[in-house]
Amino acid sequence: MAKKIPSRSKSSMLTQEENRKDLGFGTKITSERVRLINKDGTFNVRRVGDSFLNSVNWYHRLIILGWRKFFGIIFLFYFLLNIVFACLYLFIGIEYLEGISNEHQQPAFWEAFFFSAQTLTTVGYGRISPTGFWANSVAGLEALIGLLLIALATGLFYGRFSRSVPRIRFSKNIVVAPYLDINGLMFRIIHERDNELIDLDVEMTLSCLDTLPSGAKIRKYYPLDLERDHVNFFPLNWTLVHPITEDSPLANATEKSLADADAEFLIMIRAIDETFMQQVHVRFSYHYEELLWGAKFEPMFDTSVQGDIAVRVSDIDRYQPASLNT
Amino acid sequence: MAKKIPSRSKSSMLTQEENRKDLGFGTKITSERVRLINKDGTFNVRRVGDSFLNSVNWYHRLIILGWRKFFGIIFLFYFLLNIVFACLYLFIGIEYLEGISNEHQQPAFWEAFFFSAQTLTTVGYGRISPTGFWANSVAGLEALIGLLLIALATGLFYGRFSRSVPRIRFSKNIVVAPYLDINGLMFRIIHERDNELIDLDVEMTLSCLDTLPSGAKIRKYYPLDLERDHVNFFPLNWTLVHPITEDSPLANATEKSLADADAEFLIMIRAIDETFMQQVHVRFSYHYEELLWGAKFEPMFDTSVQGDIAVRVSDIDRYQPASLNT
Amino acid sequence: MAKKIPSRSKSSMLTQEENRKDLGFGTKITSERVRLINKDGTFNVRRVGDSFLNSVNWYHRLIILGWRKFFGIIFLFYFLLNIVFACLYLFIGIEYLEGISNEHQQPAFWEAFFFSAQTLTTVGYGRISPTGFWANSVAGLEALIGLLLIALATGLFYGRFSRSVPRIRFSKNIVVAPYLDINGLMFRIIHERDNELIDLDVEMTLSCLDTLPSGAKIRKYYPLDLERDHVNFFPLNWTLVHPITEDSPLANATEKSLADADAEFLIMIRAIDETFMQQVHVRFSYHYEELLWGAKFEPMFDTSVQGDIAVRVSDIDRYQPASLNT
Amino acid sequence: MAKKIPSRSKSSMLTQEENRKDLGFGTKITSERVRLINKDGTFNVRRVGDSFLNSVNWYHRLIILGWRKFFGIIFLFYFLLNIVFACLYLFIGIEYLEGISNEHQQPAFWEAFFFSAQTLTTVGYGRISPTGFWANSVAGLEALIGLLLIALATGLFYGRFSRSVPRIRFSKNIVVAPYLDINGLMFRIIHERDNELIDLDVEMTLSCLDTLPSGAKIRKYYPLDLERDHVNFFPLNWTLVHPITEDSPLANATEKSLADADAEFLIMIRAIDETFMQQVHVRFSYHYEELLWGAKFEPMFDTSVQGDIAVRVSDIDRYQPASLNT
Questions:
Q1: Backbone φ, ψ for residue A17 (5° rounding)
Q2: What CATH number is associated with residue C304?
Q3: Are D77 and D216 members of one domain?
Q4: If exposure means fewest CB atoms within 10 Å of the residue's CB, which of A23, A224, A233, D254 is most exposed?
Q5: Boundary-marking domain end, from A97, A126, A161
Q6: Which residues share a beta bridge with D285?
Q7: Given this model, what pLDDT does residue C221 score?
Q8: Which Gene Ontology CC terms are recorded (chains A, B, C, D) (predicted)?
Q9: Which of C19, C52, C147 to mutate to test the interface with D (most CBs of D within 10 A)?
Q10: What mean pLDDT do residues C145-163 have?
Q11: How many CB pairs (< 8 A) connect A and D?
């Protein structure tokens, strides 16, 4: 029997669904104590049910690893690989490593271990050298492996070192402050590093829970318009302002209503790192507990510095109380 | 005699041609058993008539090769190159390789072979060393070649390792499911790896055969609008929906009509890989046999995992029967 | 005395100038025998008056050099550098290179030369080794220089190998052919290599000389609209068509009028190379002598190949006479 | 007590603020002797109050360093590292470095120093070789460190060498010249290097001080429209023109009014470097003192060069007096 797709003219439900804003988290995350975006920009989501080896992206892991751990892994790997090859040389027979002296009475294992190290790094002093087919074969293989590992290390080093990691610092709090003749939701940012970010674009979204007529809760997302969402240059600090007009999703919001709705302010920044000429993305979020009412940021210009224009990075969190416009 | 281009005001045939959608396959592929896009995203097209050496892009080949084959080629190449150089040293005369011992009674060929390996990898133990003009020249050349090959291997390693290969997993089937108060064509995707894809854009196109009044068949392409074709983030699974309204090319389609038209659903995804900050493209296609009628996907949230939001990757293909809206 | 900028309301001359299309060549290139874009995509322009060393971009030069010349330079450089260091060792005194044997009666220069080669490549067999402060210092420096040069070679190798050089082949001729119920200016392209180009955008511009009322000639540029200027995929050949309607700059053009105007068809292609996920740009131009009147391209599908869809690359230039629509 | 955000319908002050152009410098930089953008494109801004180590981006620093300083640092680092390791070997005991000869009466320190150099560069001649556990361990570690440093140097070399540094040369002066039937603000640019920049986009902004009714000064930014702000190709010089019509912010400006307002013309160029297929950004600024009144640029075409079209780079600053249109 032939199946047929029934169809209807465009429904109002569809129009409504198409206009619903969604960042990609969907409507079903309704647990109230779970942040969507962590302070370091990662998502609060785990993908399970797939084997670890299948899901891990080794390059990604080795690139984002801290430098201390990265070097730890390299040294450990070097140590273990030498132990493996030392055992191989002992298995073949220490007598095939010509030139081992007994002068310092070092055990055969360490002699084989250091010979291995000299081969892996391609130093090859030659006081000890392999003789016979098998010792020579293993040494030849080890030198090749050494070179490939150097190639790998070179790539990783370059990948880590040359990756753009923008260090945009966000003010500790997001504040509701008087703004012109109305009020605004404000936070501010500064680039901590001495290279330049240019062409910044900023987007802010309010994530909060809505109660359906049925009593069920769904998560909704509202864009928060910014007074200015793009700058060409970013040498100074930048205060971002969402003007709270009557059209704002925050109009008439109260401290309690935001807490009830588990409000989270999601911030996305796109910029270009001028050293690498690479686009970078930065995510951040403020939870409703980090919102201050009636506070305004203090200027960050440092007038004590002569000549140049100077901004004091450490002042980014400083604010003072301010009564809101009514 | 001067030739002159006759011209006419814009014809209706031209307007029609300009509005015809074409992905780049043209209208002439009318064989019914041929998929346009394979399951791995490659095209089902061969370019012939050009010499192999001229058409092959070696970098491309060595980059997309599996890791096992890649290492196989490296080891084989190392082995063969040492054989070539060993023969060269034998040709010059084994007596020009000073220090060859007869202790272990190894044939001259292997001594030359291992000396070559020590030179190519720049280990250079020095138990055996070249003397005389020719042996020294060949050894000097071999060391240089060794270094250039290491440079090449380093580049390839880095190129392979640092290339973004997004692993978006598609549901095994595309389904016709009830959607709001109408029906929709749905499939879903998830990213299998632990790094993030952001700013996804998805496009879906229906490719099918049309019969001309003359009886000839031509292939046509229809865009299928999606309820939502962009997300900023992709930490969870994403179900893509083409709402089957009266305007849809699928309105009133039946199982038989799709089979007759050799329907293929072509999917293109653009995203940004956050580790590499590189744009990636993913292609996929569903043939009409992979379409299920009256089925809806089951949720993938895993509520057994405490704390974080968790999605079970292996559940992506799970569906249950569902009666369509009429 | 203060100067003041006089100003006027917007003039019609300004509006006209703002609407004039210009690719960046300006209006003053009026010599008739000079192509603007060469067949290999380079511009027919020289920048003089600047010192060679200041204007040359070494990376660019070493990257676009042919492979044979590239290797030639590397080998020559290696040879010369060893000669320099050999002279340095001879200057210090050959007796500071311990282990030079007189067995094979090789002159001191070559011993120093090969010792230098062993140091530069970091092979360091050690049969010959430096003693004393100066020989050791020079050897230490040479090894460091060797490593830095290897680093440079590695970078260049990778840069050359991993650079996307799209090989789009253009049909030898551009033709005026019957097209639907009118005529069209057509050329066709195919990608010769086995990796994929995607998201192609094509632009065509007519460059020709116009005579001003004063009798002076200026070069003008007219965009030529294409029936289709974008494809998502490019696995097959693609015929680009500029429909010659009454609005076309080519309407009523004759062979003589194009020759008189020194007509050149400039073509720009933007695409994404899928292996590198890098945008590539290709330029090409057809001069009026390469235009064929009343010819249409023959299909390139190869039906003798079973199974896959097959295109014969070498057929790209094939055409047959066709009478134009009137 | 629940706080509530008061809100108002959109205010006229907000609209005005939203329409104010801002490049990212803000309105508060009112010191008259401070340029915003230096001649080399850097910003005249310092970020203070953060620790040096925290704010410095080492990759960025090492990449923008001059070549002479870069090599100086490498050689110094090599020298110091060898001194450190030489001391370590002396501490362990010079007798553990086998093969040190007293023939040339070199002090033990230098023998250890050169042995260290041979290990760090992985040359490893082997005349001197480590014996015993500790000497061997230090040597094994040194060889590994040597390899990692080579990896780092390789990455930096490639990063420096392959970075696109466009060398767009700006005319020394910006001029007010007659243009068509009105006047224009003009400057011109040329690319000094032999590789190509394509798809250039140029933006010009006037930065000047405005006096508020209160007498306070604020810095304002006005976009200056260009007659043409994009070219596809850039093989020749390009003269950029802001037509001074009645709508221009410069209408009726005088030499004195520009000086009083501390006028600075900020220029931003975006282009694609064809060798690297990378987007590049160039910044430049002209201060009011660099503005010439009634001068027009002389042509740069060099007609003495036969065959090709030739442009004389060194003529970029040449101008002649010209009386303005009134």
A1: -65, -40
A2: 2.60.40.1400
A3: no
A4: D254
A5: A161
A6: D266
A7: 92
A8: monoatomic ion channel complex; plasma membrane
A9: C147
A10: 85
A11: 242
Asked if A122 has any chain C CB less than 8 Å from its own CB, the reply is yes
User: What pLDDT, on a 0 to 100 scale, did the predictor assign at position B2?
Assistant: 46
Cβ-defined contacts of C75-80 (< 8 Å, 24+): C75/B144, C78/B144, C78/C117, C78/C120
D317 shares its domain with D244: yes
State chain A's mean pLDDT as an integer: 87
Confirm or reject contact between A192 and chain B (CB < 8 A).
Answer: no
What the block records as the tokens of D91 is: 């501490």
Q: Is the dihedral of CA B133, B136, B137, B138 positive or negative?
A: positive
Question: Number of Cβ pairs closer than 8 Å across B and D?
Answer: 6
- With respect to residue A40, please indicate whether it lies within any of the assigned structural domains: no
Distance (Å, whole) CA C260 – CA C263: 8
Of B122, B162, B231, the CB nearest to A122: B122
Report pLDDT for D75. Answer: 94
* ipTM confidence score: 0.83
The low-confidence residues of chain A, meaning pLDDT below 70, are: 1-3, 5-10, 32, 101-105, 305-307
The predicted pLDDT at position D10 comes to 67
User: Residue B192 has what pLDDT?
Assistant: 87
Contact D45 A198 (CB under 8 A): no
* B313 interfacial to chain C (CB closer than 8 Å): no
Whether B203 and B296 share a structural domain: yes
Residue in C7, C60, C124 nearest the CB of D194 = C60
Average pLDDT, chain D: 87
Closest CA to C46 of D300, D166, D278: D300
Residue of C nearest to B10 (CA): C245
Tell whether A248 and A104 lie within a shared domain. no
CB A126 within 8 A of CB D126: yes
Q: Give the closest-approach CA distance of C175 to chain D in angstroms.
A: 26
Please report the pLDDT score of residue A1 as a whole number: 39
| Residues A100 and A188 grouped into a single domain | no
Q: What is the average pLDDT value for chain C, to the nearest integer?
A: 87
Task: Enumerate neighbours of D (3 or more CB pairs within 8 A).
Answer: A, B, C
d(CA B248, CA B204): 12
**Same domain as A226, residue A155:** no
| Contact between chains at A18 and B246 (C-beta distance less than 8 A) | no
Does residue D220 belong to any structural domain of this protein? Answer: yes
Residue D173 lies in a domain: yes
**Beta-carbon separation of B236 and A59 below 8 A:** no
CA distance C119 to chain D (A): 6
Q: Considering its fold, how many domains does chain B have in total?
A: 2
Point out the domain boundary residue: C131, C161, C191: C161
D156 and D185 part of one domain: no
Q: Are residues B220 and B86 in the same domain?
A: no
CATH number at residue D93: 1.10.287.70
Q: Which two tokens stand for residue D13?
A: 């002050």
CA of D1 to nearest chain C CA: how many angstroms apart?
56
- Is residue A57 within 8 A of residue B275, CB to CB? The reply is yes
- Dihedral in degrees, nearest 10, Cα atoms C265, C270, C276, C278: 130
Candidate from D122, D126, D154 with C-beta closest to B126: D126
CB contact under 8 A, B45 and C311: yes
**Hey, how many other C-beta atoms are within 10 angstroms of the C-beta on A22?**
18
Nearest Cα to C198, choosing from C274, C268, C269, C267? C274
In a domain, A45, yes or no: no
Whether residue D89 contacts residue D138, with contact meaning beta carbons closer than 8 Å, is answered with yes
A293 and D CB contact within 8 Å? yes
Identify the chains in contact with C, defined as 3+ C-beta pairs within 8 A. Answer: A, B, D
Report CB contact under 8 Å: B124, A119: no
Enclosing domain of residue A156:
62-161
Model pTM score: 0.87
Give me the tens of pLDDT residue by residue for chain B, a chain 326 residues long: 346 766 666 678 888 888 888 888 888 877 766 788 888 888 888 888 777 777 788 888 888 888 999 999 999 999 999 999 999 999 999 888 888 765 556 788 999 999 999 999 999 998 888 988 999 999 999 999 998 888 888 888 888 887 877 889 999 999 999 998 899 999 999 998 888 899 999 999 999 988 888 888 888 999 999 999 999 999 889 999 999 998 899 988 888 999 989 999 999 999 998 887 888 999 999 999 999 999 999 988 877 766 678 888 889 999 999 998 87
Interface probe, candidates B47, B154, B157, chain C, greatest C C-beta count within 10 A? B47
